[in-house]
Write a structure and sequence with these properties.
By secondary structure, the chain is α/β, with parallel strands linked by helices. It is built from 13 helices and 8 strands. An 8-stranded parallel β-sheet has the order 6-5-4-3-2-1-8-7. Strand 7, helix 10 and strand 8 form a beta-alpha-beta unit. Helix 10 packs across helix 11 and helix 12 crosses helix 13. It is globular, with a radius of gyration of 19 Å. The chain starts with 6 loop residues before the first helix and ends in a 5-residue tail after the last helix. About 45% of the residues are buried. Its cofactor is Mg(2+).
């Protein structure tokens, strides 16, 4: 049998994942194409994608998939819902679970309580989707169990009345970036740009990257490759880093106070290029 998961993506640590694909758990037919896609990480979605009367069936579907060879993250329902406890009880026994995304995270203890109901060491992605969650982002990022923060743009806009203009969402994105840094987490994951592909999606990724976010959610498998491209070091950055590191290895002299920061940036770009397999791309 062919492997379910894209091998390149499967080998990439989740802390470096750029594209995070949400696959609806309303139909198991969504799982295979998602796992075979270019998405760095795949999330089986038992929350927004599933109506209340379909939650139990979706949960069974996900556990079955994760018990028969598939591996994925799972978006569970918020802690204030009637489904949260059952979601975690079922997932705690699923061998293919990579981690969970907690919907509607607003307080740090919600992450910790979620982590405590799973196998020890299971990472929790805190999906921040409200004004309260944004204001508590620093505490959430520092909570035991928090692996990375993600931005639920749609629900945040409904909660606050903000438009989708980058300026209207700049405070929330910046808050998640700063909170992630304070909590010593990987860069946060931006929300999806719904229904957008190609150049428009690349432009959206430029906004994501400019804010300091290092991942992005998506709803379509075909969006993953574009996000990976948009959130990776560019070819010119890789060439610059390679040249600077070669010169440094050859004994280049520190010329001014900007040299060491530039060297550190070159080393980071080089490391990411290695992780993403970009040197020969």
């Amino acid at each position: 049998m062919a492997p379910f998961r894209n091998s390149r993506a499967a080998a990439l640590p989740a802390k470096l994942s750029r594209s995070w694909l949400l696959a609806s758990a309303a139909d198991e037919a969504n799982f295979g194409p998602a796992l075979a896609s270019e998405a760095d990480s795949v999330i089986f979605d038992m929350e927004d994608a599933v109506p209340a009367d379909g939650k139990a069936a979706a949960r069974e579907r996900v556990v079955e998939a994760l018990s028969t060879g598939m591996t994925a993250w799972v978006r569970v329902n918020g802690i204030e819902t009637d489904f949260w406890a059952d979601d975690l009880a079922a997932l705690s026994k699923a061998p293919g679970l990579r981690g969970v995304m907690l919907a509607m995270t607003e307080k740090p203890e919600q992450v910790t309580h979620t982590a405590m109901r799973l196998q020890a060491g299971t990472p929790v992605l805190a999906l921040v989707e409200s004004a309260l969650g944004i204001e508590n982002a620093t505490a959430i990022a520092s909570a035991p169990g928090t692996f990375r923060l993600a931005f639920g743009v749609g629900d945040f806009r409904r909660d606050t009345g903000a438009s989708d203009d980058p300026m209207a969402l700049a405070y929330a994105r910046s808050k998640l970036v700063v909170a992630s840094r304070v909590g010593q987490l990987p860069g946060p994951i931006d929300g999806p740009t719904v229904g957008t592909l190609g150049e428009k999606l690349l432009e959206a990724c430029k906004v994501t990257a400019s804010m300091g976010m290092t991942g992005k959610l998506c709803l379509m498998p075909e969006a993953a490759d574009t996000i990976n491209q948009g959130l990776s070091p560019s070819e010119s950055e890789i060439v610059w880093a390679h040249e600077l590191l070669e010169a440094h290895a050859a004994g280049a002299v520190v010329g001014d106070g900007s040299y060491l920061p530039r060297l550190a940036r070159a080393q980071k770009i080089s490391s990411l290029a290695d992780s993403y397999g970009l040197w020969n791309a």
